[in-house]
């Protein structure tokens, strides 16, 4: 598990190092990253994940949308009194 976390951190760093560069040519697409390699870009997240599974099987890989800045996800919850 620790190895997978380290791999993901490395892939996220690689993505961030190249985000602006990729924005110039493939903005809005989904990047498939393995290690320190951009394996490919895809129109949909489903296509990118599918390509990752076909190429890497059950190994960890990163799929992330190439956008100028990530928006935080906000989730509303109901207080159920539990």
Describe this protein's structure.
It is a single chain. By secondary structure, the chain is α+β, with helices and mostly antiparallel strands. Helix content is 45%, strand content 18%. It has helices spanning 2-26, 45-56; strands at residues 30-34, 37-42, 62-65. Strands 2-1-3 form a three-stranded antiparallel β-sheet. A hairpin with a 2-residue loop joins β1 and β2.
Pattern of helices and strands: HEEHE
User: Would you identify the regions where 5 or more consecutive residues have pLDDT less than 50?
Assistant: none
What is the typical, i.e. mean, pLDDT? 90
The dominant shape is: globular
Strand order of the largest sheet: 2-1-3
Secondary structure category: alpha+beta
Largest pleated sheet: 3 strands, antiparallel
Helical content class: 40-55%
| Strand count | 3
How far is it from the N-terminal to the C-terminal residue, by CA?
Answer: 32 Å
In what range is the share of β-strand residues?
A: 15-25%
Query: What gyration radius follows from the Cα positions, in whole Å?
Result: 15 Å
- Note the total helix count: 2
Please, how many domains?
A: 1
